[in-house]
Amino acid sequence: MLPDILEKVKVAFRTLDRQEDWFIIALIILVGFGGFGLGRLSTDKEARESIQIEQNTSLGALGSVNDLGGAILGQVVASRNGGKYHFPWCSGAARITETNKVWFQNEEDAQKAGYTPASNCPGLK
């Protein structure tokens, strides 16, 4: 079956020996691709919906809580059994069990309580 199809294709190409025939075939293919491309361009613009980004700067909308374990923004956490304080997103804070966590409003409060900044937590003073 496949050899028969290949033979028919070879015969068809042999009959296309004039340049006008090749030009017509190329023109039909180009018109087809052009029509397809124009169709895609016209439907692409209709399908797109504009995206609006709204920025809410009030902490009340956030509930003044970030997604890092419920810590209030700007707070630091320390362990009751340790001497270092961390930001809530640092790896050291993740290793502290919930029962041993001590929360401070800022770094100064943690330092007043006798804690020092963790060296593996970037951004701490």
Structural summary, described in words:
The protein is of the alpha+beta class. The protein has two domains: 2-47; 62-117, DNA Methylphosphotriester Repair Domain, CATH 3.40.10. 46% of the residues lie in helices and 10% in strands. The protein contains five helices and four strands. It has helices at residues 2-15, 19-47, 59-62, 91-94, 107-112, and strands at residues 76-79, 84-86, 101-104, 116-117. The chain is rod-shaped. The N and C termini lie far apart (79 Å). The model is unreliable at 61-70 (pLDDT under 50).
Residue share in helices? 40-55%
Largest sheet: 4 strands, mixed
Total number of distinct structural domains: 2
The neighbouring-strand order within the major sheet is 3-1-2-4
List unreliable stretches of 5+ residues.
Answer: 61-70
In short:
With 125 residues, the chain is α+β, with helices and mostly antiparallel strands. Helix content is 46%, strand content 10%.
How would you summarize the topology of this molecule?
Elements lengths: L1 H14 L3 H29 L11 H4 L13 E4 L4 E3 L4 H4 L6 E4 L2 H6 L3 E2 L8
Parallel strand pairs: 2-4
Antiparallel strand pairs: 1-2, 1-3
Task: Provide keyphrases for this structure.
alpha+beta; 4 strands; 10% strand; DNA Methylphosphotriester Repair Domain; four-stranded mixed β-sheet; 125 residues; 2 domains
